[in-house]
Structure formats: C-alpha cells, structure tokens
Amino acid sequence: MFPAVLIVDDNKSIIDSLEGILSDDGFEVFHAYNGYEALKKIHTESPDIVLLDIWMPGMDGIETLKEIKKEYPHLPVIMITGHGSIESAVDATKSGAFDFLEKPLSIDRVIVTINNALNFRRLEEENRYLRKKSIEKHSVNGFSAAIQSLNRQIMHAAPSEASVLITGENGTGKELVARTLHHFSGRPEGPFIIINCAAIPENNINSELFGHDKGAFPEAVAKNKGKFELASGGTLFLDEIGDMNLATQAMMLRAIESKTFQRVGGGRTIHADVRIIAASNKNLATEIKKGNFREELFYRLNVIPVHVPPLRERKEDIPTLTQIFLSACAKDARNSAKSIHKDAMALLHNYDWPGNVRELKNLMERLHIMVPGDTIFANDIPHPYHVGENTQPCPGLFAIENLKEATQQFEIAFLKNKISLESGDIQAAAEKLGIDPGYVEDTIEKSTPKKQDIK
Ligand SMILES: Nc1ncnc2c1ncn2[C@@H]1O[C@H](COP(=O)(O)OP(=O)(O)OP(=O)(O)O)[C@@H](O)[C@H]1O
Fold first, then answer.
1. Alpha carbon separation from 345 to 1, 330, 362 (Å, rounded)
2. 417: phi then psi, degrees, rounded to nearest 5
3. Which Pfam family is one of those matched by this entry (predicted)?
4. Are residues 302 and 324 in the same domain?
5. 302 alpha carbon – ligand 1 mean position (Å)
C-alpha cells in the first residue's frame, strides 16, 4: 500500500507541483485549500501524513494543526512556512508538528522529511503496541479481594509523584507492582531503572548509584552515569531496600530530599527528576529498631505504603494465575495451552507456596514443557507439591508392632489424602472410593484427638 499524503495550501500552484512530485514518488495524494476542508479530508481519506501551510486565510495553519492534534494526536503533520517565518514554525513544533519545510520547497528535502515522519510514526505505533503488550504482560492478575484492593491502590498511587514503599514476601509480585505504578504514572515514557540494593558490591556503590567522572579513581577510564541519572524523567526502583547499608542509606536520603546528587569525582551538582519506588521483604520497622535502617529514610519512602499479600492468603487466585501462566507458555512456544485436572488443581490449592507467585509460575513453565498431553493430571505434579497426599503417609508406620493398629493408621492417612484432593469434600472423596461417606466421617473423627484427650 502507498502512503497517503494530504497537502493543505491555499496556493494552487504549490499543491499542483507537490502533487506531481509525490505521485511520481509513489505516494497517494489528496489536497485541501483550507483548514476546514483539511479536517474533513482527514476524516474521509485517513491520510498517513499531512503537509500543512502556515499562512492560510480563515483558519490558519497553526489553528488547523491544533484541531488536527485534538482528534488525531498520532497523525504526523509537517508545516510549510514562508521564508523568514521560522518563529511560527517553532511555535508549530511546540504544538505537535513533526517538522517544518521552508519555501521555496526543495524536492529532496520534502521527500526526506516525509519519509522521516512516516518512519517515526511506524516506530511510535510499534512502541505503543509493545507498551500495550507489556502492560498486559505486567498486569497484577487475580480476582481475590486482596488483589482487587491492591489494583485500586495502584491506580490511586500511580499518577502522583509521591514515593511508594511496597512490602511483601519474595516472589509475591513487588517488582510487578512497581512496573505497573510506572506504566500508569505521569512518566510512562521515561525509563524504569532497577537497583537491587542487596546485589551492589559495597566498594562500588557510590559510583553505581551516582556515576563517576573520568579519573575519579584508577579504574574510572571514562565518565559513567549512575542509576540515579539514568532514571531521570522516569522511575527509580530500589529493590530490597532493607539490605542497603547505613552509609548508602544516608546518601540516598540526601539525594531524595534535595533532588540533587554529584558524580563521584565530579564537583557539578546534578538535578535528578526521579520518582522513587522502593520494595522490601524485610519488616523495616523491625530493622529500624535493630538499628539497621534509618528512620528518616523509611518515612521518606513510605509516603504511600502498598502491601502485596503472600499467595497462601489468596489461594482463590491460583486457578486464574495458573491459567494465565499456562496460556503465556503456550503463546511463547506457539502451541496450545494445557488444562489442569481438578485433582491436580486440588494439590496446588493445598500447597502453601513459600516462593509465592514466582514458584507457581516456574512450576507451570516446567509442566508446560514436561507434560506430553493436553491435560496436567495430579501425578504430573512433582512430589514436593503433594501436600496431604503424604509420600510418607504415616511416619513411623513400620515402627508399629500391631498389624491392626498399623492398618488403622494407614487407612486414616489414606482417607485424609483423598479428602484433601477433593478440597476437603468428604462426600466427593467417599464417592470416588465407592464407600459410605458416613464411614469416612467416622474414621476421620475417631482419629482426631478430642479436647479432653489433650493433656
Ligand atoms: N498477580 C500477578 N499476576 C501475574 N504475574 C505475577 C503476579 N504476581 C507476580 N507475578 C509474576 O511472578 C514473578 C515474580 O514476581 P516479582 O518479581 O514481581 O516478585 P517480587 O516480589 O519482586 O520478588 P522478589 O522479592 O524475589 O524480588 C514475575 O514473573 C511476575 O511477573
């Protein structure tokens, strides 16, 4: 398909000559003699680019540009200016014009500028597409009340410039929350820079955070920007902030408070336009009491506290997350997503997930690869996850010397396991085993110590 260009000029001879040149170069060309007509043509012909004269009677080029940008913010517009009207052209670029061309028009420059604008538009579209994909990929998924409330907090906190402190166990999704905050902030186009505070080598920390000038220390053979500077215009994510040493905490506090810093070996004060988001899996209040964390820094970071609960406290999210991860694996591998049998799901439900969502995601990736069929059954789930199924059903079974007692112990463990696979539903477990639910209930009840039995 040929790119379509709309030329807007009240001067017929300019339209004619541009139309001739651009048609010869393979463009589809439309024209309009004034701003009103241009807006209509954009609506009916959907051009890929507009060449717009600044000086026109009635609605002039700048006004037309503003109207175009209101409705079609991504449509590139190149202004055509008379000789000596550079100031208006600069105004136009401030109002969203891609570039300007000065009369008399040079054919080469017209073609180059149009191609630049089209390339830019293509890149922008690609960028928007990738951003959308990335937002989908980075959504904090789950229908539990806890996740719904977390998403509401994210939406409230994101547009503000205030610091956010995210707490939660490993693998609960703290980095994901930080990325989502950045996506929905007022600076989504800016960089998202991560500092893993637990992983920076102590001897290098200043330079890592604030950069260094050439010659600052023997290894500094060239100037280097630190993470603070790299995050300018975007978000700086301080992961595992609880592991930052006290001296670095003091420097960090100074930089956050003054919004300025200096490179190592550099005298110049650099302004940092950075939004701070921090995360910790440690209880910082406890760390303050122990003298490991600066109280002032805590208050600086904790302007908006956000807690991500562990997966064991929101097990109702497991089916949704499982499905999302299996679909993502299938999409990456370009094959179809596997489903999970309900016995396998019961196992996932019984497990406590110490590694939280990361552990669930890793398990799904493994099962997607290792399970040959379309369905993941309970016996496909690796053993550590068979909680309640008890690979060691009755510890000490062989130490029992009485056959009747050993049989009873085994029976109890066996029944408990089947009940847990049915998510606690005795009726369903009994039905599967083809026995009377009353019998199952009695057996389990007999095995449960009564209050008066507990001395
Ligand atoms: N609610 C969720 N929906 C979808 N994916 C999630 C969710 N929560 C976490 N994940 C995924 O789980 C993995 C671990 O999450 P993340 O790295 O954000 O955890 P974390 O709390 O920052 O971990 P750590 O404390 O170890 O740094 C990531 O791949 C993330 O995309």
1. 50, 19, 16
2. -60, -45
3. Sigma54_activat
4. no
5. 21
With a Cβ cut-off of 6 Å, ligand 1 is lined by 140-142, 168, 170-176, 239, 281, 321, 357-358, 361
What burial letters (b/e) apply to 61-89, b meaning 16+ CB within 10 Å? bbebbebbeeebeebbbbbbbeeebeebb
In total, how many domains does the chain have?
4
Residue nearest to atom 8 of ligand 1 (CA): 173
- Select the more confidently predicted residue: 137 or 292: 292
pLDDT tens, 338-389? 999 999 999 999 999 999 999 999 999 999 999 999 999 998 998 778 875 5
Tens-place pLDDT, residues 79-109: 998 766 778 878 888 889 999 998 888 999 9
pLDDT digits (tens, 9 = 90+) for 295-329: 999 999 999 999 999 999 999 999 999 999 999 99
Residue owning the nearest CA to atom 31 of ligand 1 = 176
pLDDT at 223 over 90: no
Same domain for 148 and 209?
yes
Is residue 12 over pLDDT 80? yes
- Here the CATH number for the domain that contains residue 37 is 3.40.50.2300
Give the position, in ligand 1's atom list, of the atom nearest the Cα of 178: 18
Q: Whose CA is nearest to atom 10 of ligand 1?
A: 173
Q: How far apart are CA 80 and CA 288, in angstroms?
A: 63
Which DSSP symbol is given to 326?
Answer: H
Whether residue 116 is found in the same domain as residue 185? no
Per-residue pLDDT for 65 more than 90?
Answer: yes
Q: Which of 241, 315, 326, 357 to mutate to test the pocket of ligand 1 (most atoms within 8 A of CB)?
A: 357
| Atom of ligand 1 lying closest to residue 239 CA | 27
CA-nearest residue for atom 28, ligand 1, is 358
The Cα angle at residue 3 between residues 119 and 40, in degrees rounded to 5: 110
Same domain? For 341 and 436 the reply is no
Residue 391 lies in a domain: no
Same-domain check for residues 288 and 342: no
Q: Are residues 165 and 305 in the same domain?
A: yes
Whole-angstrom distance, CA of residue 96 vs CA of residue 49 = 13
Average pLDDT, the chain: 88
Indicate if 300 and 153 belong to the same structural domain.
yes
The Cα 314–Cα 145 span in angstroms is: 8
What is the extent of the structural domain holding 427? 397-453
**pLDDT tens string 256-271:** 999 999 888 877 888 9
